[in-house]
Every structure is written in structure tokens, then in C-alpha cells.
Design brief:
Elements lengths: L3 E4 L2 E4 L10 H5 L2 E9 L2 E3 L1 H14 L8 H15 L4 E8 L17 E8 L12 E7 L14 H12 L4 E5 L5 E4 L3 E5 L5 E3 L10 H12 L5 E2 L4 H5 L3 E6 L3 E8 L2 E2 L7 H14 L12
Parallel strand pairs: 7-8, 7-14, 11-12
Antiparallel strand pairs: 1-2, 1-6, 3-4, 3-5, 5-6, 8-9, 10-11, 10-13, 13-14, 14-15
Keywords: Amino-acid biosynthesis, Aminotransferase, Branched-chain amino acid biosynthesis, Pyridoxal phosphate, Transferase
Protein name: Probable branched-chain-amino-acid aminotransferase
Cofactor: pyridoxal 5'-phosphate
């Protein structure tokens, strides 16, 4: 079956979907986006993702292309037409099509909405085999990383550097030697004192939706954590490290720059959080964990 995309009011075969050459998203990265996980045919944490979409649009002064209720219907229809059970939905909103000029169009133009979805492997049943590796990389991005813009060239270069070194993520290091986040993830550590830590949103980082939901789950389960800066050295000496995102969920980092994190296996805190988040994804958020067999 041909993949179906949505482009400004039309559902089209993926190979026929396109937008104008003077779309400002293409020419200036004047656009924002979101990625939503689809599990068992339903959206995971779409509320936080749409909240962040609206915030990003406000920050760069692009109007919502339609009401949230109408947008939800479009997203659901794209998933339905593609018969997706487990997948990733991508939506992008650009300022629209206008004659090329750096300033906003003198006469406002309608924003352009594009939605696609693709199948992915099923949600991992176990944390074992789900771990990954990372490298450290200088954070070369712009000063508004809190906006989920499509201007991702520094992230692309960081991810490529990771790939060329046999890793899957790049952990970004600010000029002051502190960790900001991953190229496309939020970074967490369990430090030498056993404290669960992640960077605070006062830093120049993206307010991750999975980060937000995991923090809610930590509070619900009475698990203490610290939001604040930590150094590259603290990252390298951490007992455990993991990343979160709509595609990583809770994913252990087993090695950084070729050196094992802890004993090189998922640690007890990461295992517990993987299990807690897995229950949330499966709609079992308020159920107690099952006893080990």
C-alpha cells in the first residue's frame, strides 16, 4: 500500500506530496515540527506535543494552521489511511509560501501544514538489548534551542559524527563544560552520589515531551531527581546514563566515547524507569509493577 501524506488540506500518495519551492520552511528553516509516537494505534503523549507545537509557533509568530481539535482529526486520519499500529508521526508547520525575503511577508500568508507517518519496530518489550552508545560533541547550536525549529544542521552534523564513530547519539557540551542535551534527546545521569539528574529548562535546551512526562511519573512514584547543570566530568563518571525522547523512550547509554558507563549494562535506576515508562505507554500508568517471576 502506498504511504499517504497530508499537505494543506489534501491527502496524497507520499510520492506525489510536495510544497512550493518558495516555502519558507525550505528556504529559511522558518518552520517548526513535532514527532509523535503511535503505539497500538493510539498517540502517546500527543497532548504535550501539541502544547509544545503551539508554544513554538507563538515564539516565532506563526498562527496555528487550524484548531487543535481539527488538527487531531487530521493526525488520526493520516494514521488511519496508512494503517499504522506502531509508528512515528511527523508534522511540520512553516510560515508559508512567499517571495523570498528574510523578513516576514508584508502580507501574511497561510501557514503550510505537512503530516506524514511511518512504521517502526514494536515498542521494546525489555530494556535488555535496548541500550546504545554515545559520543560527546561541542554544542554549536543557536541561542533558541527551546523552539523546536526545523533548523537542525548542527544536530545533523553531531549525529553524523556519532555515526562515524559507531555510536547513535551525540551528547552536546556547552563552552562552560556542562552537558546541555543530546542531538535529538534529553540526557539523564545517576551520579556518583546516586542522584538522578537532568539539565534544567533554564539552560538552552528543548523542553522534551518525554522528559516532561517522565518527570510527572517520577513525582507520582516518589522518585527524587535534580534539575540543574552537571559537567562533562560528572557525565563520564556517572553510575548510569540514559536518554529520553519520543523515539528513544527511556534508553540506557552503555558507553560514552568508547568508555563503559558503570559496568556497561543498564543500571537499576534506568531499569526501573524503563518499566515505569513502559506501563505509561501501554496505558497502564496507574497499575503497580508486576512481581518478578
Amino acid at each position: 500500500m502506498s504511504r499517504i501524506a497530508y499537505v494543506n488540506g489534501r491527502y496524497l500518495p507520499h510520492r506525489e506530496a510536495s510544497t512550493h519551492i518558495e516555502d519558507r520552511g525550505y528556504q529559511f528553516a522558518d518552520a517548526v515540527y513535532e514527532v509523535v509516537h503511535v503505539h497500538d494505534g493510539r498517540f502517546v503523549d500527543d497532548g504535550p506535543h501539541l502544547d509544545r507545537l503551539e508554544r513554538s509557533l507563538r515564539e516565532i509568530r506563526i498562527p496555528m494552521p487550524m484548531s487543535r481539535a481539527a488538527l487531531r482529526r487530521v493526525l488520526a486520519e493520516v494514521v488511519r489511511r496508512n494503517r499504522i499500529d506502531e509508528g512515528l508521526l511527523y508534522l511540520q508547520v512553516s510560515r508559508g509560501v512567499a517571495r523570498r525575503d528574510h523578513a516576514f511577508p508584508a502580507k501574511p500568508v497561510p501557514p503550510v501544514l505537512v503530516v506524514t507517518v511511518k512504521r517502526i519496530k514494536p515498542y521494546p518489550a525489555s530494556i535488555d538489548g535496548w541500550g546504545t552508545t554515545a559520543i560527546t560533541h561541542p554544542d554549536l547550536r543557536w541561542a533558541r534551542c527551546d523552539i523546536k525549529t526545523v533548523g537542525l544542521l548542527p544536530n545533523v552534523l553531531a549525529r553524523q559524527a556519532a555515526k562515524e564513530k559507531g555510536a547513535s547519539e551525540a551528547i552536546l557540551i556547552a563552552p562552560d563544560g556542562t552537558v546541555t542535551e543530546g542531538a535529538a534527546t534529553t540526557v539523564w545521569i545517576v551520579d556518583q552520589e546516586g542522584r538522578l539528574r537532568t539539565r534544567d529548562l533554564e539552560a538552552n535546551i528543548l523542553p522534551g515531551c518525554t522528559r516532561r512526562v517522565l518527570i510527572e511519573l517520577l513525582r507520582e512514584n516518589g522518585i527524587p531527581f535534580v534539575e540543574g547543570p552537571f559537567t562533562e566530568q560528572e557525565l563520564r563518571t556517572a553510575r548510569e546514563a540514559f536518554i529520553t525522547s519520543a523515539t528513544s523512550f527511556v534508553k540506557p547509554i552503555l558507553a560514552i566515547d568508547g568508555v563503559a558507563v558503570g559496568d556497561g549494562t543498564p543500571g537499576p535506576v534506568t531499569r526501573r524507569l524503563f518499566d515505569i515508562f513502559s506501563r505509561h505507554v501501554r496505558g497502564q500508568r496507574n497499575e503497580p509493577p508486576r512481581a518478578a517471576a
